[in-house]
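Morning, I've got a small favour to ask if you have a moment. I owe you a coffee for this, so here goes:
>
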Amino acid sequence: MSTLDLEQLKAFVAVAEAGSISGGAERVFRSQSAVSEQIQKLERAADTALLLRSRHGVVPTPAGERLIGHARQMLALGELALHDVRRELRRTEVRLAISDYFRPDEIADLLRHLARHCPQLQMQVTMGQSAALAQGHAEGAFDLALTMEVESIARPRRRATQGELRREPLAWAAAAGLDLRNEASLPLVLLPQSCSLHQTALRVLQRQRVGHRIAHLGSGVAGVQAALRAGLGVGCLNASAIGEDLMVARSSRLPALPSCVFRLLPPPADANPALREAGEALQTYFA
């Protein structure tokens, strides 16, 4: 089975980042002819051109752009493996905060992806409300944060913004078969008032003058889901958090809801490189 040579990948990454064969040769302490030969061997192995050469230097081809991300990961893992064998592996703690509304069934897969791509990390994970997580991130309590923001119905975003990972519709959720016809006021199952979805639900109901009451306040999304399954009322959830045994509730009494955006709040620019790699790994997971 064909494999990629790490020394050739190292030369390729150096040249691509430097923008020239000579600049790449200086970075890897090799002659220009030796680096050119490494690149040619790599292109033969890949069976395609990886660099576009001109008088002004070199730039990666589309195939080269695809390869460079894999090459950086392979070189980083090779270095980590060597340090581990030598018992020199330096662990870096990452304080990761995740919105309580993030897909519950996806969290384990996301953490496995992060551990696989950044094995040097020791993760400390906190779940909570996005507003508190964003504030904690701003104050330096978290290195990375996956938060959720609610869009405005009047002015929804048309384009992806910085750090945006995923956009989801909000929906009214309830247990299958819940009958609200005899309810004078709409029974609501929500998180406390500090939750953005709590605020959104009340705002749209008040705007449409829909009578409502708080039937249950949960301490977390799992508690809200349990109360909804018990038939205690209607809740406002992002689509992926509606979960098993719940359905989208449809009624003329229920007004339209906006969408929400999940966003990655990155580490500061001067953070440990391992934390920046963790942020990039999260971005690749969603890509």
Summary: The mean pLDDT is 87.
